[in-house]
Amino acid sequence: MNGQMHEGEVSTTLGLESIPTLSEELQISRDLFLTSYNEAKIHFSTISTVNAVTMINEAKSEGLNVTCEIAAHQIALTDKALIGFDSNYKTLPPLREDIDTEALIEGLKDGTIDIIVSDHTPQDIECKQKEFGLAEFGIIGLQTAFPIACTHLAKHIGIEGIIQKMAINPRTLLQLDIPVIEKEFTANITLFDPTQKWILTKEMIVSKSTNTPFIGTEFTGKVFGIINNGAIDFE
Fold first, then answer.
1. Active-site annotation holder among 79, 100, 114, 119
2. pLDDT tens digits, residue range 19-53?
3. Which of 37, 69, 93, 174 is at 20 to 30 A from 184, Cα to Cα?
4. What's the whole-model pTM score?
5. pLDDT reading at 206 higher than 80
6. Domain that holds residue 121
7. Is 177 an active-site residue?
8. Are 196 and 109 in contact (CB under 8 A)?
9. Residue 198 CB-density burial (10 A; 0-12 exposed, 13-18 middle, 19+ buried)
């Protein structure tokens, strides 16, 4: 792949080889036709464009068994973030335009988009701190996916909707049991405050990699502990 970022005004200004929305949409269109022909089911990973949302919405309306997801950072960032050539903003699919971000939010609201994922893609420092065109794609996202969702989506789908998209729907799609909080059941619980404001620092990162553009970003919503299979871990 030669493309480095989304094809648009910013890529033209920066003189970078680009990745058009068409490259994603052609694949989705083809796969939807195949899904319809075979009466199959399909899940699309990390969609990112207006037309992708539209096509999947229409396919669902026609009764196709189709689901899809987006990466959390796609609702927080656009291609304008790459103006400084910071490779921590270099993702795949690439960060798109405001109109695409708005479409993703609408897709979450109307049920077209089923799941929000972290798209956690750790890279070592040697893969990121080099010329933009040679740097690897991807950012880490396990610690930021939930706070990004809380910060940018709480007013659109509420905390219940965020939990549905991040915790319930993925397990439903994979046909996994949904954890319940009841007597005699194993406690698998994430403890969080959806209103707490905090700033991510490099020292807070627990991943072995630090390739994130969100260091220094203020978020609303913070996880502060988990209970998992008898193990308890709190900050």
1. 119
2. 999 999 999 999 999 999 999 999 999 999 999 99
3. 174
4. 0.95
5. yes
6. 5-181
7. no
8. no
9. middle
